[in-house]
Design a protein that fits this description.
heterodimer; A: mainly beta; 6-stranded mixed beta sheet; 4-stranded mixed beta sheet; globular; B: 126 residues; OB fold (Dihydrolipoamide Acetyltransferase, E2P); 5-stranded mixed beta sheet; 3 helices; 17% helix
């Protein structure tokens, strides 16, 4: 699975790259047909996440996130499920937490060795935001 | 039955050793949004994401949530298990004691079921 990594106030987060159609820089306008969803607000985080947006393909959502930090190929075995009993919400927007291995990462992945990132679920995110619309593929 | 004496803030607690899987130095706790107030984050223990609880006073909890990566190096995490569910308890110190010490020191016996029971452990994984 290839993911896009980005910074949030609580730490690094990730989304499946195939869910992201485009990354908008802070000054870029949100294309018509996309609803703005503030990820930091959705996660109840304190502090502004930054002005980038990820256009979620097919979901008609522009997700406001922090600074993008590149993409990475993630082995499914690196994704650890998060126990449901730790959350105060019934439906959590996470697929799990990516635990990058301490060793064996080369090239662009090398700086990620030993780090973690919360892997978000784009479907649950848009569902939690209360926003749904028909798919709008460009 | 032996127990572990736990020191956390002003509280002096004990927990049955049979519930404890491991005591380890507190490092590398990752904060996770939308969790209960007494959870400071998750740790990776044997390739499982384990929620880490702080049982101290609320003021301390608040401070840790604002500075989640600033935990003191002297802190330890006690990994406990119940019916396959795992949790870590962040403490200043954990030491094994015998039954006599438990009586003499008037420690509060920590109810493992209560720790897991405060949130529904039957909820699935995300």
């Amino acid at each position: 699975m290839r993911v896009i990594l980005f910074e949030m106030p609580s730490g690094p987060c990730a989304l499946k790259l195939e869910a992201v159609g485009r990354v908008l820089a802070p000054a870029e306008p949100i294309p018509p047909g996309h609803a703005h969803v503030d990820l930091a607000g959705l996660l109840g985080e304190i502090g502004r996440p930054g002005g980038h947006h990820l256009l979620l393909s097919g979901l008609g959502v522009a997700l406001q996130v922090g600074r993008p930090a590149g993409t990475a190929q993630v082995d499914p075995s690196w994704i650890l499920p998060l126990p449901g009993y730790m959350f105060r919400v019934r439906e959590t927007p996470f697929r799990g937490i990516i635990q990058f291995p301490e060793q064996g990462l080369a090239g662009a992945l090398a700086p990620l060795a030993g780090s973690r990132a919360l892997l978000l679920d784009e479907e649950k995110l848009t569902g939690q935001s209360g926003y749904r619309q028909e798919a709008t593929r460009s | 039955m032996s127990h572990l004496r736990l020191k956390t803030g002003s509280r002096r607690l004990a927990i049955p050793a049979a519930s404890v899987r491991q005591v380890m130095r507190a490092t590398d706790i990752t904060p996770v949004p939308l969790t209960w107030a007494d959870i400071v984050g998750v740790m990776n223990w044997e390739a499982r994401a384990v929620p880490v609880y702080r049982l101290g006073d609320p003021a301390t909890q608040e401070s840790r949530r604002q500075h989640p990566k600033g935990q003191a190096q002297t802190e330890e995490i006690v990994i406990i298990e119940q019916e396959g569910a795992l949790a870590g308890i962040l403490v200043e110190r954990a030491e094994r004691i015998d039954g006599a010490s438990l009586q003499q020191e008037e420690l509060t016996l920590l109810d493992v079921e209560e720790i897991f029971g405060r949130h529904d452990v039957r909820k699935g994984e995300s």
